[in-house]
Write a structure and sequence with these properties.
2 copies of one chain form a homodimer.
Chain A lengths: L2 H8 L6 H12 L4 E2 H7 L6 H14 L2 E4 L7 E4 L5 E2 L2 E2 L4 E5 L5 E4 L14 E12 L5
Parallel strand pairs in A: 6-8
Antiparallel strand pairs in A: 1-3, 2-3, 4-5, 6-7
Chain A binds a DNA duplex through helix 2 and helix 4.
Chain lengths: 138, 138
DNA sequence: GTAACTGCAAAATATTTGCATCCTT
DNA sequence: AAGGATGCAAATATTTTGCAGTTAC
């Protein structure tokens, strides 16, 4: 039983071909993936709709999380274990998007420093997106 | 000559009704606005397309900036003066999105603390989005 | 066998483009 | 007067929904 199958089992999802392959894509990818990437990279051609629904399911289960970007696009990345505890996903990640190659990295092991908020604002989650040049593009 | 006209002049844009009204909306709004908000709130009904093009123009000039959100939506907020220096926009803002009322605040005067990146990553800009409960919803 | 997942079709939304007309400078 | 901005129509692209057939458990 391979890794992706274990993940699906862990979250109580049926083991299907599309789910396995999409998960494999995430594991193989260094960075985050957009819907379009998955559509392009998957050898078997899944239906667009299946990809939408699979991503939605993964999101709800906390297997992946979405990365906010300033333009329209939504990116998804695999969550590390600590990231989803009994469905309660906390998005306290640092993401890095390369200005050159556009790859989005998910830097799970970087902690977000405390940010001072004005009076009356109560923080729950925080996301940081840093843009710059990645290690492969210098 | 009112404030919004001055802004348009400053950036070398023609003074038109739609641009003035959309700028007014931003000034009147406490938080950030989505395309849909503008469409809804503008008394005169501009064409959808005009709003798209106006926002695009404002973005390019650095009059507004976009706020990344984890879902599909894109939000826009007025830039403060320091925010756009000769077309070079730097997005080092802290944004706060309320989980209750969904209003997005642009906290320009909060500085982003240094984040330690892994070897080889060179930061240029950083955006922080914090979610929680805003001052009006407690 | 049953519940859940997928694919297809189609609807609903969102965004972009071309072009003629109108407005700002 | 000239160039840019707008509105309309239409082309694209994106996302959602319903349903019938298939697959996993």
């Amino acid at each position: 039983m391979d890794g992706v199958t274990l993940i699906l089992k862990k979250y109580g999802l049926a083991i299907t071909e599309s789910r396995k392959q999409i998960l494999e894509l995430f594991k193989a990818s260094e960075g985050a993936l957009a819907h379009a990437d998955i559509e392009k990279k998957s050898s078997a051609n899944f239906d667009r709709v299946t990809i939408y629904r699979t991503l939605q399911t993964f999101l709800e289960k906390g297997i992946i999380h979405s990365i906010p970007t300033a333009d329209n696009s939504v990116l998804y990345a695999l969550c590390k274990d600590e990231c989803a505890i009994t469905g309660h996903h906390h998005d306290n990640h640092v993401h890095f998007v390369c200005n050159q190659c556009s790859v989005a990295y998910c830097l799970d092991n970087i902690t977000i420093p405390e940010v001072k908020l004005p009076e009356g604002f109560e923080p729950k989650e925080a996301a940081v997106v840093i843009k710059g040049i990645c290690k492969n593009c210098r």
